[in-house]
Amino acid sequence: MRRTSALALAAVLVGGATSVATASAAEAAPIGFASVTALGQSGTTGGAGGPEVTVSTAADFIAAIKAEGPRVVRVQGMITLAAGMYDVSSDKTVIGVGANSGITGGGLNIGLPVSSVTTPPANAVHNVIIRNLVFRNANDDSINVQMFSHHVWIDHNDLSAGKDGLIDIKRGSSYVTVSWNHTHHHTKNMLLGHDDGNAAQDTGYLKVTYHHNFFDRTPQRNPRTRFGNPVHVFNNYYVANSDTGVACQNKSGCWVEGNYFENVEEPMTNSYAGPKGSIVERDNVYVNSGEPVVGGSVEDPRGYYAYALDTPATVKALVTQGAGTGKI
What we know:
Blueprint: H1 6-16, E1 37-38, E2 41-42, E3 52-55, H2 58-66, E4 71-75, E5 78-80, E6 85-87, E7 92-96, E8 102-104, E9 107-110, E10 126-131, E11 134-136, E12 143-145, E13 150-155, E14 158-160, E15 167-169, E16 174-179, E17 182-184, E18 190-192, H3 199-202, E19 208-211, E20 214-216, E21 224-226, E22 231-234, E23 237-239, E24 246-249, E25 253-257, E26 260-262, E27 268-269, E28 278-282, E29 285-287, H4 315-322
């Protein structure tokens, strides 16, 4: 075990970070891959410019998230859905009112039905924001992004107790930012790339940024990745992840920097199971945690977007105070 004090590291890390700033816990627009201009979309704006509707019943919620055209869907209170995955169409913002609004029983699907196509279809789901929602007891995934969906921002949610993944991204989806979420009371947390045999759809896609998330005693898939390069994992707080933090596999490349790992058995590895991936590791804090298993080459995320890295020793406090619902 590496037993290093965060306070002892603070002076070293402040000097070593290439860009240090105090992050906002309520960005008005996404940082990372969801901000990039690509695939005919300039950044991620969700339902901006469309009508705003407040929903409090399952029927109204389902109708609003699948309606055509831009729309801001405000969720009031906890809505119980029948078991299943419910489609969110393009140009939507789905946002909770207050700290205790969201859905239970079902999950959200952002993407077309599964097929074997290997290039983004013209009608791929895009420009979706999921924000400030509580997700509980989904009978499948809590949030699933699939089939070349792009420009998706999943921000400031509280997710736990699903049957499968809390946030899974797969089948050629790309330009996604997952930020300021609190995940807890769940084992298989976040998957990026669903299968070792899906190179035809996934190669060149699955570009995702994970930042300022609170991975709270979630044993594995924090995230587990395949094929995406770069996958940017920065300024997240990991605590008591009993199996592994970042698991970067099968030709994926993870750029892992400025995170705070506390009581994590294996903070990161590129040889977790199946074919290896690559990890570049920089300026992370390890408190009572194991050694990182890294190697290989990864694209630098700064080739796609600019960002400021918070001082790693401050990340625990920033994330525990700022992640989850009721903060925007």
